[in-house]
Amino acid sequence: MKWVRLYVTTEGQTERKFAEEVLGPHLAKYNIEVKARVVLTNRKLGKRGGIMDYGKIRGDLHRLMLEDQHEEARFTTMIDLYALPNKFPGWTEARQPTHSQNRITILERSLKADIEDQRFLPYIQLHEFEALLYCDLSQLQKRIAGSAPGLTKLTEEVRGIPSEEINDGTTTAPSKRIIRHVPIYERSKVRVGVAAAAAIGLPALRNKCPHFNSWVNRLELLTPNA
User: Fold this and answer.
1) What CATH topology corresponds to 4-126+209-220?
2) Mean pLDDT of the 186-210 span
3) Its pTM surpasses 0.90
4) Which of 109, 123, 184, 224 could form a disulfide with 215 if both were Cys (CB 3.0 to 4.6 A apart)?
């Protein structure tokens, strides 16, 4: 069976590490090689990370696609709905629906249409990477000393809310809630957050996060027949 080369363009280092260490080993079982990279946001300075300007990610994706035009190359994204720039394709239309899943559908469809490459499979995370950690906050507690009181309060705060529906408010987004209760997380999210997600495991993440699961399902189907 042929191998697929999957480029995952991520918003930051946390997502890049997650793609490499959690998605990579899983997708290797499907003959898919994950090549994760953080979006280039300043070519002159070589700065990567954050999506403050849609034009930056569009240009970065197009350059990557031109560099690898082989048929076995595929491309996807792992970027947050939270703080998405208002110049993002489909932004105005997506502001109308009240349900976040409907908004995501519009944004991903619009992004795919704007990139115009059949090898591209867009993915926008509801609402941040940290949503995955709410599948089992105890894994975060095990990795941050003294976090039990804060995470106990956080668990009560979000009780009954599905992980992917924890919203995109400036103080209530997934990461903002964690940082409010456990401030040290802000400085250790790459190391701690990815380790916690890995410990939760893909089966649990997929079971509790339908949109994330849909993306992984589509990635698993990328391998062409030998």
Assistant:
1) Rossmann fold (3.40.50)
2) 97
3) yes
4) 123
